[in-house]
TrEMBL record:
Mitochondrial protein involved in the maturation of mitochondrial [4Fe-4S]-proteins in the late stage of the iron-sulfur cluster assembly pathway. Operates in cooperation with ISCA2 in the maturation of [4Fe-4S] proteins. Belongs to the GcvT family. CAF17/IBA57 subfamily. Residues 276-353 form the CAF17 C-terminal domain. NCBIfam families: ygfZ_signature. It comes from the Eukaryota. This is Iron-sulfur cluster assembly factor IBA57, mitochondrial. SUPFAM superfamilies: Folate-binding domain. It holds the Pfam family Beta-barrel_CAF17_C. Keywords: Heme biosynthesis, Mitochondrion, Transit peptide. It comes from Neotoma lepida (Desert woodrat). GO terms for biological process: heme biosynthetic process; iron-sulfur cluster assembly. It is found in: Mitochondrion. The keyword Cell division does not apply. One of its GO terms (cellular component) is mitochondrial matrix.
Length: 357
């Protein structure tokens, strides 16, 4: 029954309710909200800041910026322009994918509305994997044609992830959204478990009250535990399918917006209601090869020897694997190149939304 729930796509939209369903076969400790973020509220530190040098920024602005991006992205655009002072401000960040014509993911991005934008000339920042910055710029140029849009890198801005030191009390020292010419601080649009995103030319801990610098490995460990893919290693361009990559769960797709490249397969898969494979967070138990588990390594069902899916990426003993949903009850394993057997436990994050029946 539990696996059957995961065969259907969740309802789309930013307002999708969080849920705390936990299958009986998964121990509670497997669903911890994160790794050790190197903080101790007792010493006055409340937030840990991680500088993400593997993420880069492109600025897209001009009179045609909004329709141009809407025709390429899976999601609606965030609010741009100066703060309005409204009691319930619109989202300043949005998560989305660029797809190819076959409906497979090319690039995952977080979009930010620029405060200096006007209604006549909106502007946005696109956060992407730094290794594909040039490729994404060429991708945008290919579809620009005669649109009044400029696309340019913003190397002077750095991307920071800001996570609470105490995940069980993330608002113990609340942050306030900041949207200024040289700094944007806003909630991560994918899930509350990923805290906040900070774009600034300065050091992140200086911009966050009671903040400290964190170890980047802790960020990736936390991200993998939450089942959050990020960048081309986790989402291989032209290979990953957006709905199998939990794009709906991460508020990354709108099924009511206008057309965009790759929409047909994505919409058809969603409306059939059946997603047979998903990208699950996994825990590895046993001795690992010196270079870790290779991407694409087959994950086997231990009882039958049948393939359950493939390991996608990871760090240490945590990672992501694309698995058939009916196999996640396990036990599962991977055979390493040295012939060793590594046990694999598939996890179900507590923030995933309830699948519609």
């Amino acid at each position: 029954m539990a696996a059957a729930l995961l065969l259907r796509g969740a309802a789309a939209g930013r307002g999708s309710p969080a849920w705390l369903w936990r299958p009986s076969w998964i121990p509670r400790r497997c669903l911890s909200r994160g790794s050790d973020l190197s903080g101790n509220p007792e010493n006055g530190v409340a937030w840990t800041c991680f500088r993400l040098d593997e993420r880069a920024l492109l600025r897209v602005r001009g009179p045609d910026a909004a329709p141009f991006l809407l025709g390429l992205l899976t999601n609606e655009l965030p609010l741009s322009g100066p703060p309005t002072g409204a009691a319930q401000p619109s989202a300043r960040a949005a998560y989305a994918h660029f797809l190819n014509v076959q409906g497979r993911t090319l690039y995952d991005v977080i979009l930010y509305g620029l405060p200096e934008s006007t209604e006549e000339a909106p502007g946005f920042l696109l956060e992407c994997d730094s290794s594909v910055l040039g490729t994404l710029q060429k991708h945008l140029a290919m579809y620009k044609i005669r649109r009044k849009v400029t696309v340019e890198p913003r190397p002077e801005l750095h991307v920071w992830a800001v996570l609470p030191c105490a995940p069980e009390a993330p608002e113990a020292v609340p942050l306030e959204e900041r949207v200024e010419a040289t700094i944007i601080l806003t909630r991560d649009p994918r899930t509350v478990r990923m805290g906040w995103r900070l774009l600034t030319q300065d050091d992140g801990p200086d911009m966050v009250p009671r903040g400290q610098l964190g170890d980047l490995q802790d960020y990736h460990t936390h991200r993998y535990q939450q089942g959050i893919p990020e960048g081309v290693c986790d989402l291989p361009p032209g290979t990953a399918l957006p709905l199998e990559s939990n794009l709906v769960f991460m508020n990354g797709v709108s099924f009511t917006k206008g057309c965009y490249i790759g929409q047909e397969l994505t919409a058809r898969t969603h409306h059939t209601g059946v997603i047979r494979k998903r990208l699950f967070p996994v825990r590895l138990e046993g001795p690992l090869p010196a270079n870790g588990i290779s991407p694409g390594t087959i994950v086997m069902v231990t009882a039958t020897g049948q393939a359950a899916g493939k390991f996608r990426a990871g760090q240490g003993h945590v990672g992501l694997a694309l698995l058939r949903s009916e196999t996640i009850k396990g036990p599962l394993h991977i055979k390493t190149s040295e012939g060793q057997q590594v046990a694999v436990t598939a996890l179900v994050p507590d923030w995933w939304p309830t699948a519609a029946k």
